[in-house]
Amino acid sequence: MPALAEQVIIITGASSGIGEATARWLAKAGARIVLSARRADRLAALAAGLDPTGERVLVVAGDVTSDLDRRRLIEATLKKFGRIDGLVNNAGYATRGPLEIVPVEAMRKNFETNVFALIALTQLVVPVMRAQGSGCIVNIGSVAGRIARPLSSIYDATKHALEAITDGLRGELQPFGIRVALIQPGFILTEFIAAADKASDQYTDHPGPYAPFMAGFRVGYKKLRRVAGVPDDIARLIARALASNQPAPRYSGPLHAKIFLFLKWLLPDRVMDLILRLRR
Ligand SMILES: NC(=O)c1ccc[n+]([C@@H]2O[C@H](COP(=O)([O-])OP(=O)(O)OC[C@H]3O[C@@H](n4cnc5c(N)ncnc54)[C@H](OP(=O)(O)O)[C@@H]3O)[C@@H](O)[C@H]2O)c1
């Protein structure tokens, strides 16, 4: 398959940020795309801009954590386009806060979206790709999948899980001609922080022993904005993976992501602990 033109590619989390940029990027390259997320109005507006004829872009709004919605997404894609060449598992969000304080139920919810929904959707897509003898699955991980930070360990754990899942899956699907790649974005300016604040305010604003450190945590994010990337930095990597006959196991970007990953590889854990330690 590889050239992007005419590929049929499903993108989850296409209503904003990296998913939306990926949709624009792939549509421009001539792919036929399927947009999914919960905010149907956003998807409809994006689709209308990308393809007013509705021939090359399909919107299937839904929640990735719903089994029914996942099945509808696959069925509607096959009904309209008859095949699936790419799946970009991008939908996700972050729950932040001290491990001691975040309720286990909120952690489960984050794992449900970032990990189990991704697995369940992949389970639906693999038989289709196997029957075709080709396909590409691109999972959106994070630098946080390699570097876990204080006050962010829950989200970071979901992305660590994707490292293992992607590695295992790559070997399992290779015999069937299905390619699998992981993208490790650094900090990208999207709606991600607003969504994380919404999901986590009650834990990050919690009065208690961690309160003095939360301000430092926020300052850290503000500083990161100076080096932050834009969604297109990641859309480009996703497109490169989908267009490759032999994608790299991992793609990271922008530059600060590569530097952090290199430091993690180079430095002892104790030194990383010092770099990431809580500050008031
Ligand atoms: N921005 C960063 O700095 C960064 C860094 C590393 C990795 N990432 C990863 O990149 C991916 C995209 O994030 P982003 O930065 O583009 O953030 P974003 O702008 O907040 O986009 C997140 C997308 O996920 C969708 N989504 C969330 N929960 C969903 C659910 N239950 N069902 C269906 N769709 C759902 C949202 O759509 P609806 O709300 O409309 O459902 C939205 O389209 C995420 O997996 C994130 O973890 C981001």
In short:
By secondary structure, this protein is α/β, with parallel strands linked by helices. 53% of the residues lie in helices and 12% in strands. Helix 3 runs parallel beside helix 4 (104-132) and helix 4 runs parallel beside helix 5.
Question: What descriptive keywords fit this protein?
Answer:
7 strands; binds NADP nicotinamide-adenine-dinucleotide phosphate; 53% helix; alpha/beta; 10 helices; 280 residues; Rossmann fold
Describe the 3D structure.
A seven-stranded parallel beta sheet has the order 3-2-1-4-5-6-7, sandwiched between helices. By secondary structure, it is of the alpha/beta class. The longest helix has 29 residues, at 104-132. Helix content is 53%, strand content 12%. It is globular. It has helices at 17-28, 40-50, 67-81, 104-132, 153-173, 192-204, 211-224, 231-243, 255-266, 269-276; strands spanning 8-12, 32-36, 57-59, 86-89, 135-140, 178-185, 250-253. The model has no long low-confidence stretch (mean pLDDT 96). 41% of the residues are buried. Helix 1 (17-28) packs across helix 8 (231-243) and helix 4 runs parallel beside helix 5 (153-173). The protein has a single domain (8-276), classed as Rossmann fold, CATH 3.40.50.720. NADP nicotinamide-adenine-dinucleotide phosphate binds at residues 12-19, 37-39, 63-65, 90-93, 113, 140, 142, 185, 187-188, 190-192, 195.
CATH architecture: 3-Layer(aba) Sandwich
Radius of gyration: 19 Å
User: How far is it from the N-terminal to the C-terminal residue, by CA?
Assistant: 52 Å
Helical residues, percent:
40-55%
Which stretches of 5+ consecutive residues score pLDDT under 50? Answer: none
What is the 3D form? globular
Strand content: 5-15%
Strand order within the widest beta sheet? 3-2-1-4-5-6-7
The CATH topology: Rossmann fold
- Mean pLDDT score, rounded? 96
Major sheet description: 7 strands, parallel
Number of strands: 7
Bound molecules: NADP nicotinamide-adenine-dinucleotide phosphate
Work out the count of structural domains: 1
Structural class comes to alpha/beta
CATH class bucket = Alpha Beta
The string of secondary-structure elements, in order, is EHEHEHEHEHEHHHEHH
Number of helices: 10
CATH evolutionary superfamily = NAD(P)-binding Rossmann-like Domain
